[in-house]
Specification:
It is built from seven helices and eight strands; from the N terminus they run H-E-H-E-E-H-H-E-E-H-E-E-H-H-E. The chain is of the alpha+beta class and 251 residues long. The longest helix is centred in the N-terminal third of the chain and has 26 residues.
Length: 251
Amino acid sequence: MKPHYLKILLLATILFITTQGCFAQSKSDAKELYELRTYTMKTGGNTAKLAAYLQEVLTPTLKRKGIRHTALFKELGNSDPTKLWFLIAYPDANTYITTQELHKDEQYLKDASSYNAMKIDEKLYDRIESMLLLAFDGLAKMDAIKSDSGLFELRTYESYSEDANRRKIKMFNVEELDLFYEVGLHPVFFGDQISGANRPCLTYMIQFKDMKEHDENWQKFIKSPKWTKMAAKAEYANTATTIHKIFLTPY
């Protein structure tokens, strides 16, 4: 083989290896997608049976298809109507798409049949509401749920415009998320809502041992000079116009 052909072959090989490495790096660094489902129970519905289906049938099926984490929660106190909250962390958009046709999965259908979860006469729940969130740059993958976490706070920040929402997300990515870790507002996930109600908005979940830790650590945050300094910056002004929060506990 002539020298110039060898040189071309070597360059092509290096380019191939480099390109493959870039693709692998891109995939491993991909931001997760989070789906947060709310199951609103029918009056007199069998909550325990629905929870068993979600934990014993749907969760193993999703993990078999590449899902990293799922978690099931109930609302703190006696919500009326009763609601179950189901969190799914998808590694990428393609995995989300492949889980939308479980009725074609024979193993899933076999496992689900014992729960009658898909039959109309079961009447377990009224509706499923769902929001889809894209992970923040500052927390591209969900943090593990701690074994001693007994309280979860779910917060949604609505903004008056997409620009305001982007500026609030920037605030978290650049400064605020670091302070959360510092004062003990332990993150589970942070996501920009890309599908769902009340957009533009972002939603995040943080975890605590109990309400005592929750209250103490939020006070640390509020009293932090770092928070006072960043909250005073003009670029972050008027970014969150409405805040909703819900307290959840593990089911």
